[in-house]
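S2.1 Query sequence (Myo-inositol-1-phosphate synthase)
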Amino acid sequence: MRTGVWLVGARGSVATTSIVGGLALRAGLAGPTGCVTELPQLRGPALPAFADLVFGGHDLATTPLCKRAEALADAGVIPWRLVAALRDELGVVEQELRPAPVGDTQADRAEAVVRDLTSFRERHELDRVVVVNVSATEPAPRPHPAHADPAALRAALDGPDEVLPVSSLYAYAAVLASCPYVDFTPSTGLRLPALAALAEEARLPYAGHDGKTGETLVKSVLAPMFAMRNLAVGSWSGVNLLGGGDGATLADPAANAAKVQSKQRVLGETLGYVPQGGTRIEYVEELGDFKTAWDLITFSGFLGTGMRMEFTWHGCDSALAAPLVLDLARLTAAAHAAGQVGPLADLGFFFKDPLGAPTHSLGEQWARLTAFARHLHDGGDGDHDNVG
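Output structure tokens follow.
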């Protein structure tokens, strides 16, 4: 099943690492460590092979892909040997990267994206194209009447106003081009009633939001533990220090607030109450493409005995995120091939703020994901429950 992976933000760290990783897996130069879909519980015939993935994308930046890969190798994110071995392949992908669309209206820009997606699909004779948003985090948009009604949205996009945030404009274009959409960011994307209705009308699956790669991943394991042991969490405070482009973006207060909101949902929805404390995100340029999170949890046990727990997570965000991008592209392509429609709630395992998912517990999400994969490999169709 030849599958296009169209990356919005294609020259960024996560996208570049995903491309290098996908090419390395295809060439047999690296193993699939970190790729969940290569575990026995998920691997199977419904998923497109790594050799069947074809990469393209949009970006505002113009730095050549190979230069971005070299910078990531210098930073210790990817091995230099892979950059050296894959220069020709990276050059081929470079030819499939397009500048951000231009046009007088958002409708014009959406149509430009549709042309790029359609041309990419036809040029490579692809069975389908999955659009994955890995661009910078956006502030939450101001509500607009057109966000709720597909007909009003179409009319508004022909006007002079910026009705949709960029992530949602790409989501809209993906739907017009009959492409499933995955949002790996906390941006709005397809999370507007009008866009969800259009995706339903087009019979498309979609997934998101905000890839779960570090501190929130640990929270989704620990919070259920406290709940199941009936331990009362009094406070849970976290500090996240990160560099790189994501850190620079999150130095903006509005983007920072959108990210924090996504990260905090797991506690209230898992514990059944919101403990004191919060999450703070700070940009530390010196950290580059790495991030450190420190969390302090205070809790009480039997007879009110007070206790505490601390953990520190230090990781490379791009190396943690990239295999999940490949996983999501493969799973979403398989869901589309099987006739799945609407939010893929069973992919909540991958996200901080998952669409339609009934739980934030990683264990429960894993059980739903493996059942979903079995359904796909058994030849499942659109009757599978996507809404939880």
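The domain at 3-210+319-377 is CATH 3.40.50.720 (Rossmann fold). The CA atoms of residues 231 and 301 lie 5 Å apart.
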